[in-house]
């Protein structure tokens, strides 16, 4: 979460709760909303690394709040992140490990593993469909996230079919 | 009291014999589909999915085994017997549409309803409804040849549903559609299913399959899995996002 927070702070200084809200508004229901504790822990680390600094802002009738802003080093880290190419997904599939290894031990049958996994993927897809239904059609970011998840799931399912053809 | 299944297939076998070696495409399949059920058939290419649903619709003869539709033995019917049964009870969406080329889209969709005995007015209303649901109302006067593949496929679905068939059989009904058109088809399938439509549909599309009550997997002409798609534990609203992180 470090770099998304730096990116939000590059836009304008903010306190922790405002950052949480900004993440929620941007990504909508499609993204797990971070808890405020996580955000403060991350901000604390960023401060220690010299990427952000905090100023106390006095508030009447309330405790001071800390407003964070980006330092020059923070901006550099953010630019480096934006400039470098992003890794594509790799297959690091736990299911595939099960599929290859479990039958060797006699614990499970490959056909049964594949069949169960297929039905599980379809349940996940149904969940994504329901999530899409509940998502504000105007939130393009959230919609694209869900669509991305669906495309990944379709690829997983197609791969599962290949596994079934070749390994069972 | 037991309900009569819409489909009961027993030991269904299809061996193609075209010249050289016999090709066993379907090798002993049993399937029961209850009224109102939505069954998705999945499996690798060449596993016998199309052959199987074509046999269920009487579009391909079986080598051996029995097919019962709505409690009536169907595999022993003549071609014309099948034609009557299909007209009364089965809507079929072919992988390659099979629309009548020299009729308009509207007439293609209305024809099965008219043949099934609907009044012209009912046939027209049903056609207007279905084409509108599929975003095709503007294309009613066009000839099939003037439509894109995706449009023709949706017309084929509208035609299959025109007559409120007892059974909807579909072979990859979203195979040629982009994601937006797929969504229209999904919505319509969901709607008719909720109204009690029995559906058996071949698909590779996880979104389509995930709407089914049950998934049947074919491999080398045999059923290797036949089970319901479980509901995930309901998550509290707003936390479903972790799926996205998992797979995104
Ligand atoms: N008309 C036909 N003549 C001979 N072989 C066929 C014919 N139709 C299908 N097959 C063969 O039967 C098998 C199953 O095909 P099909 O039912 O089309 O599978 P799927 O729809 O799952 O891709 C394949 O090996 C295919 O080559
Ligand atoms: Mg096929």
From TrEMBL, chain A:
Residues 5-79 form the Transcription regulator PadR N-terminal domain. It comes from Planotetraspora silvatica. InterPro entries: Tscrpt_reg_PadR_C, Tscrpt_reg_PadR_N, WH-like_DNA-bd_sf, WH_DNA-bd_sf. This is PadR family transcriptional regulator. It holds the Pfam family Vir_act_alpha_C. Residues 91-167 form the Transcription regulator PadR C-terminal domain.
UniProtKB/TrEMBL annotation, chain B:
It comes from Planotetraspora mira. This is ABC transporter ATP-binding protein. Residues 7-245 form the ABC transporter domain. GO terms for molecular function: ATP binding; ATP hydrolysis activity; transmembrane transporter activity. Keywords: ATP-binding, Nucleotide-binding, Transport. One of its GO terms (cellular component) is plasma membrane. Pfam families: ABC_tran.
């Amino acid at each position: 979460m470090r770099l998304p927070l730096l990116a939000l702070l590059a836009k304008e200084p903010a306190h922790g709760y405002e950052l949480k809200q900004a993440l929620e508004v941007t990504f909508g229901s499609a993204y797990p909303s971070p808890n405020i504790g996580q955000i403060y822990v991350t901000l604390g680390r960023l401060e220690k690394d010299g990427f952000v600094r905090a100023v106390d802002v006095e508030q009447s009738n309330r405790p001071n709040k800390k407003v964070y802003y980006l330092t020059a080093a923070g901006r550099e880290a953010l630019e480096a992140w934006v400039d470098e190419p992003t890794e594509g997904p790799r297959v690091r599939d736990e299911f595939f490990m099960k599929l290859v290894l479990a039958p060797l031990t006699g614990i499970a049958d490959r056909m049964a593993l594949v069949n169960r996994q297929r039905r599980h993927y379809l349940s996940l897809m149904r969940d994504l469909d329901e999530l899409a239904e509940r998502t504000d059609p105007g939130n393009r970011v959230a919609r694209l996230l869900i669509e991305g998840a669906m495309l990944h799931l379709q690829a997983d399912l197609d791969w599962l079919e290949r596994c079934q053809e070749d390994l069972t | 009291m037991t309900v009569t299944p819409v489909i009961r297939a027993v030991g269904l076998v299809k061996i193609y014999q075209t010249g050289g070696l016999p090709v066993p495409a379907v090798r002993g399949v049993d399937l029961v589909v209850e009224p109102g059920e939505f069954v998705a058939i999945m499996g690798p290419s060449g596993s016998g999915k199309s052959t199987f649903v074509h046999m269920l619709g009487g579009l391909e003869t079986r080598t051996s085994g029995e097919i019962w539709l709505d409690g009536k033995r169907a595999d022993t019917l003549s071609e014309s017997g099948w034609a009557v049964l299909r007209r009364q009870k089965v809507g079929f969406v072919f992988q390659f549409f099979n629309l009548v080329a020299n009729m308009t889209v509207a007439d293609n969709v209305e024809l099965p309803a008219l043949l099934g005995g609907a009044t012209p007015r009912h046939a027209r209303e049903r056609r207007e409804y279905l084409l509108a649901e599929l975003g095709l109302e503007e294309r009613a006067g066009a000839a099939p040849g003037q439509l894109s593949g995706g449009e023709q496929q949706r017309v084929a679905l509208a035609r299959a549903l025109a007559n409120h068939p007892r059974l909807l059989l579909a072979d990859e009904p979203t195979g040629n559609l982009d994601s937006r058109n797929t969504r229209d088809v999904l919505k319509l399938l969901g709607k008719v299913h909720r109204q009690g439509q029995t559906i058996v549909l071949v698909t590779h599309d996880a979104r389509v399959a995930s709407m089914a009550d049950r998934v049947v997997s074919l491999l080398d002409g045999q059923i290797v899995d036949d089970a319901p798609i479980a509901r995930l534990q309901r998550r509290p609203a707003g936390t479903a996002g972790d799926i996205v992180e998992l797979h995104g």
